[in-house]
Amino acid sequence: MLTAEAAFVAFITERRGTYPSQPSCFRPELIPRSLFLPSVPGNPEKEAAVSHATVCPPDNFSPESVNDTAKETCLNWFFKIASIRELIPRFYVEAAILKCNKFLSKTGISECLPRLTSMIRGIGDPLVAVYARAYLCRVGMEVAPQLKESLNKNFFDFLLTFKQIHGDTVQNQLVVQCVEIPLYLTLYSPAIDWILQCIAYHAPEVLLTEMMERCRKLGNNALLLNSVMSAFRAEFIAARSMDFIGMIKECDESGFPKHLLFRSLGLNLALADPPENDRLQILNEAWKVITKLKNPQDYINCAEVWVEYTCRHFTNREINTVLADVIKHMTPDRAFEDAYPQVNNLFCQICKNLMCIFLDEEKFLPFLDMFQKESVRVEVCKCIMESFIKHQQESTKDPVILNALLHICKTMHDSVNALTLEDEKRMLAALINGFIKMVSFGRDFEQQLSFYVEARSMFCNLEPVLVQLIHSVNQLAMETRKVMKGNHSRKTAAFVRACVAFCFITIPSLSSIFTRLNLYLHSGQVALANQCLSQADAFFKAAVSLVPEVPKMISVDGKMRPSDAFLLEFLCNFFSTLLVVPDHPEQGVLFLVRGLLNVIQDYTWEDNSDDKVRIYTNVLHLLSAMTQEAYIYHVDKVDSNDTLYGGDSKFLTEINKLCETVIAQILDHLKTLGKEEVCSYSRLCSDYNTLLRCMLKLPT
C-alpha cells in the first residue's frame, strides 16, 4: 500500500515546522490512474481493442451507463481503502478518490462527505485535523461545490476543538519541539483561510454574520479573527470595522500578534470603504498599535497597508504625520535598508492616491533620502514624476515643489551612464521634459529663463531634454514678442538676445546632426522674428557650415537609411526662410545663398541621384521669387531685400548670374543621364521647362 504510506508520511507531526508545505506534497496523482478511470461501455470493437488501456469516461456520464465490471473494480478499491488500519491514510486516500463515487450512485458523494467529516473527529492532533478538514473542503469544492453543508460542518467542528490548541497536551509538545506559540499558531492560518474561503464563496451575509458571532464567543480567538478577515468579502469587513477593532482589542497579545490583525483589517479597508463617520476613529485605533511596534519589519509591514487607507480618506496633514512616523521608526540603525520593497510600495501608494507634490518638504525629502540604493531610488523618483505629470493639471512655480522635483529629476539624470539602455534614457528624458513643460512663472520671463539655464546645467547628459529646453526658450522669446506686439523696448530686446544666445551655445552640444540643423533653422527664424538680425545670420551661417558634415547614412529607428531625403527636406525649408532674410551690409549681395550653393556644389551626392538637381530646382524657385517687386511673404518689422534694394538693376543682375550658374549645373546633369534613365530624364526635363518659363520672365 504505497499510497497509504505516502499519505501517512505526509501528515506526521514530529516536525511541526514542515507545515503547511509537507501536507501539500500529497496529491491525488499518487493514486493509481486505473482507480480513477474504470472502463465505461462504448463501441464494442473499440472496447476490445483497448481492453488493456484506460478509457476516459465522458463528463456527463451517469451510474447507469457504467458496466458491472467497472463498478466492481471501483467497489474493490473502496473496500481496500476501508481495510487500511491507520485513520489518517485511510481518510486521505478515500478523500482523494471521492469523485469515483459517481461510478456507483448519484448520491454517493453527498453521502460520503458527512461521513468523512465525522472521521476527522478521530484525529487527536488539532494541527493535523485542521489540514485534513482543509483538504476535504478542497475536494468537496472540486467535486460537489453545491454541497455547502459539509463545509459549514467542518468549520463548526473545528470551533468545537479550538480550545485544544491551548490545552496542556499541545503546549507540552511545543515545549519538547522548541516551537513558540505565535509561530505555532501561524501554521494554522493556511488551512483555516482555505476553509473560510470555501464557506465565504457566494455565501449570504447572514452566514458570514453567524461565523463572526461564533468566533467572538471563543476565547483567544485572534487566529480565527485573522482568517475571517482574510477570507470574507472586503465590503463585509469594512462595514463592521469598529466591531472588528473591538474584537482585536480583546485578543491576547501573547498568542497571535495584534499588528497582524490590524494588517489584515487594513488590507480589507484598502479594497472597500468603511462608514464615513468611523474613518478617523479607525485610523487612530490602528495607528496607536502600529506606532508602538519596536520591530522595524513588523512596523513597515503594517504601515504600508494603512498608508493607502490614509491617502484615500484624509488630507495632507495626516499623510505628513504618517511619513514622519515612518521616518522615526525606519531611520535608526538604517532599518530601511532591510525593507526597501515595503518602503517603496508605501511611497508608491502615496504617489498613486495623492498628488505627492503638495507634501511638506520637511517630511518629503527626508523620506526620499531613505532610499540609499541607487536602483531603488531611481524607481521611486520615476514613480513620483509619473504621478506629478498625471495629476498636475496646471503649471506651477511653487519654489518648494520646484526644488523637490529638481532634486528628483537630478537623481534620475545622474543615474545615466554608458551602460544605460536607450529605452531607459528615453523614459527618463520624457519624465524630465514633462516636468519642464509644467513650470511657468507667468509674465516673469527672466525667472523662467533662469530656470531653463539651471535645468540645462543639471540635465546636460540627456539630449532630448536639451532639445526641449531649446524649444522652450524659443517659445519664451516668441511670447515676449507677443506681449510687446513686436515693438521691443531696450529691456525686452536685451532679454530676447539672451534667449537667442542660450540656444546658440546649447545647439552645438547635441550629437544628432539633423537635430542641430533643424534647431539652427528654427532658432534663426525666432531671432529674425524678434529683429535680432545679426544673431539670425549667425544661426544661418552655422547651418550652412554644418551641411558638409551630413553623413551618407543615418540611423532611423535603429536602421541605417540614406540621408539625402532628409537633407533635401531641410534645404527646401531653408530656402523658404532665406527669401525674407535681408542681406548683411558688409557681406555682399545674397551672401547666404551663395554660401549655400557652394556647399551644395562641393557635397558628395549618391551616384545616379537626382537630389542635387531637385535642390537646384528649388534654388531657382527661390531666385525667381527674389526678383519680384514685392515678396509673397514677410516677417513683421523686418525689411527684406525687396525693400532694401527696391528692384535695383545691380541686384537683379546678380540674381541672373546665379540663375545662369544653376541652370548650367542642371543641364550638365541632364546630359549625363543615360538611355536607361528615361523616366528620370522626362521628369527633370518637365521641371526644367516649368522653371525656364519663369526665367524668361525675369528682368534683364
From TrEMBL:
Its main location: other. It is found in: Endosome. GO terms for cellular component: endosome. Keywords: Endosome, Protein transport, Transport. One of its GO terms (biological process) is endocytic recycling. Belongs to the VPS35L family. This is VPS35 endosomal protein-sorting factor-like.
